[in-house]
Amino acid sequence: MPQYERVGSGRTFLEVVKQIKESVLQGELKPGMFLPSESELTQQFGVSRTVIREALRTLEQMGLCKVVRGARGGAQITLPSSKIIAESLSLMVNMKPEYSADIVEARRIIEPEVAALAAVNATPAQINELEHLLREMEDSHATDVNRYIEADLRSHIVIAHACDNFILDNLMMSMSDIIGQLIGDLSQHLGMRKSGVIHHHHIAAAIRNHDPDAARVHVLTMLSAPLLR
Hints:
The protein is mostly helical. The chain has 11 helices and 2 strands, in the order αααββαααααααα. The protein has helices at 13-25, 38-45, 49-61, 82-95, 100-121, 124-140, 145-162, 166-174, 176-186, 190-208, 212-223, and strands at 65-68, 74-77. A hairpin with a 5-residue loop joins β1 and β2.
């Protein structure tokens, strides 16, 4: 367990955050490990409990720890999650609708290459899951909108995982809330659901056939339709 330098009562909680974050980056603290108790941290850093609690809240917001309640609880180190970015990005777009055009442009740049990588790297299990989701979309598009939306969004997530690139996968996950909103809005129209099934059929076939060029083209075609998927 790392030992921390005293920051003094006049220093801010950000000094505490900085030292703990450095311990994580240097591998001294690993996911699953618990930080010392509040009282121990208070003594090590030479600050009040209020400062320690503010630091822990900040680390939790950054995705570097979670507070576990109970007798064996405490502040546990975690891996940062794309969920935090997704929630912030979704909030920004909802507050600033003019950012929607930027999301469309970003998707047209990123998703075709993600699909191309998926066509190269997808495992048999991921291809089977993609085929299953395509059948879900086919079976539900005319009668069950919610089931269709869930399968559609899940297919985007499977393709992101299948690209086997940590950064692109997490980048796609950070946009998943917004993509889900777009799919939900557009899928209220039966015509869009029908075209969605056709597009996803072509994309799934390209990935199944390990054809990155076809996967890239079909995703770009889908995202360039008059009404964005």
